[in-house]
Amino acid sequence: MEVRIFETKQELGLSAGKDAANFIREALEKKGSANIILATGVSQFEMLATLIKEPGIDWSKVVCFHLDEYVGLPESHPASFRRYLKERFASKVKVKEFYFLNGDIDPQGECKRVGEIIKKHPIDVAFVGIGENGHLAFNDPPADFDTEEPYIIVNLDETCRRQQLGEGWFKALDEVPKQAISMSIKQVMRSNKIICACPELRKAKAVKACLEGPVSNMAPASILQTHPGAIIYLDKESASLLSKYK
Predict the structure, then answer these.
(1) From CA 195, how far away is CA 106, in angstroms rounded?
(2) CATH architecture of 2-235
(3) Which of 52, 61, 93, 119 has the fewest CB atoms lying closer than 10 Å?
């Protein structure tokens, strides 16, 4: 794991987006195709905006997978992650295939459907964030570090649900779904490179727990400490409680 700290979240996003583009270009040059995982949320805004503008990427040879999605939320809802990804990414670049998660139908069936597909596509680059409760994807604590299934149905804890409310995706806490389809911890960790963008002061406690504390399913993103290809992108606010990486 490598940690990089920037003055602003804009600089963070710019650097993460450019590094992501380089990793995708490397995969394309090496094997003629690339498989990536895309995340959503406020933390990904600048990174995605940078990535789609990067030159020299043959997007027609890139296959995309969806990190997580709410159970029971229609795509028309402003908080829908597939809506987010279609508006901010898929409508801007024409990839070979994008395997979206549809949490508005049979969630177990979706886990199986997309899980079988991703098993055939080794991931070159995964984009993730760190939640205010330390979650990785929607794997809230205590996260399942053991399941081999690529996608699982998870229960969302109150801290996670309040984060979604605080970011402005919902008008009231009772509107935030209590379950989601999430990529599993082991599936995220199978990625060759992991780009973790995590700006803002509200993430500082989680960042400290996950980067300087022990590896524990009570701080799910702490597992990134064990991944040699993980790069953590912080701004000075999200890094403000760190001592080791000053």
Answers:
(1) 30
(2) 3-Layer(aba) Sandwich (3.40)
(3) 119
CB 165 within 8 A of CB 176: yes
Q: What are the structure tokens assigned to 236, written together?
A: 């000075």
C-alpha 91/C-alpha 43 separation (Å) is: 20
Give CA separation, 123 vs 21, 37, 136, in Å. Answer: 14, 7, 17
Question: What are the backbone angles phi and psi of residue 107, rounded to the nearest 5°?
Answer: -65, -35
- pLDDT tens for 88-120 read 999 999 999 999 999 898 999 999 999 999 999
What the block records as the tokens of 2 is: 């490598």
Alpha carbon distances (Å) from 174 to 83, 165, 171, 177, 201: 21, 10, 9, 8, 25
Residue-wise burial string across 104-119, b where 16 or more C-beta atoms lie within 10 A, e elsewhere: beebeebbeebbeebe
Overall pTM surpassing 0.85 (yes/no): yes
Task: Identify residue 137 by its one-letter amino acid code.
Answer: A
